[in-house]
Specification:
Distance between the termini: 89 Å
Number of helices: 2
Largest sheet: 7 strands, mixed
Shape: elongated
CATH topology: Acetylcholine Binding Protein, Chain: A
């Protein structure tokens, strides 16, 4: 019976929140009641795995989770009115979400957000919203081969809002990318990771836009090259010599 009451309370809460949201605002409008105030979005990627480093195409493919946390002033309620319920889940396409994109992307970058799990938001009673979609990013990276096979490469991921100015959306991204769940790569190792916030003025617009740059420093593992390239070549050369020695 208690579980049924909780389900009914959550259903009523979701219906009330979405109805209020559609009446007072729209999914494209910023979730603030004072238009002069910016929406502050806490943003931090969590690097999970390096999928590929294409030196010919100058591309880095990396699997990561994007963490977005912001406050929506239209998604608040009193938990005592809904059986003590202090959080719920909503579909991302029903409410406002920050349009943070990867500026130096070589593909759409957001197609994996369309899945069922990526389209869910966790909403708390005080209006705090959490969104953590999973994405495979493909970014431009200037890869040099002058020091091959003992080379180090620096790649950047530049994120920012596509349409909202700095006075409309502020990025709170002071922490470097999370590496706690990073899976080691067979050929490359991560030896550095940093973050830099800045404001940029583009030719298209008069206003300033906020963006954040995540730098990832990679170093090639010489042991990988020795095991899979040099060692087979040496063995093949010895086999050729043996063929001449047999007669």
């Amino acid at each position: 019976l208690l579980v049924s009451q909780q389900i009914a309370s959550e259903g009523e809460l979701v219906h009330t929140l979405l109805a209020r949201y559609q009446n007072e605002t729209a999914s494209l409008a910023r979730p603030v009641k004072n238009a002069a105030e910016p929406v502050i979005v806490r943003f931090r990627p969590s690097f999970r795995n390096i999928m590929d480093i294409d030196e010919k195409k100058q591309e880095l493919s990396i699997y990561l989770w994007r963490t977005h946390i912001w406050k929506d002033e239209y998604l608040t309620w009193n938990p005592s009115d809904y059986g003590g319920l202090n959080r719920t889940r909503l579909n991302a396409n029903k409410v406002w979400t920050p349009d943070i994109v990867l500026f130096n992307s070589v593909n759409a970058g957001l197609e994996s957000k369309d899945g069922d799990s990526n389209g869910k938001l966790i909403v708390h009673h005080n209006g705090s919203v959490q969104w953590i979609p999973r994405v495979i990013e493909k970014s431009i990276c200037d890869l040099g081969a002058s020091d091959f096979p003992f080379d180090e490469q620096r790649c950047f991921l530049k994120y920012g809002s596509w349409s909202l100015r700095a006075n409309e959306l502020q990025l709170d991204a002071k922490e470097e990318a999370d590496m706690s769940e990073f899976h080691l790569h067979t050929e490359w190792e991560v030896i550095g990771n940093s973050v830099k916030n800045q404001q940029t003025k583009y030719e298209c617009c008069e206003e300033m836009f906020e963006d954040v740059n995540y730098e990832i420093i990679l170093r090639r593992k010489p042991a990988f090259l020795a095991r899979f390239m040099l060692l087979p070549a040496i063995l093949l050369s010895l086999m050729l010599l043996v063929i001449f020695w047999i007669p």
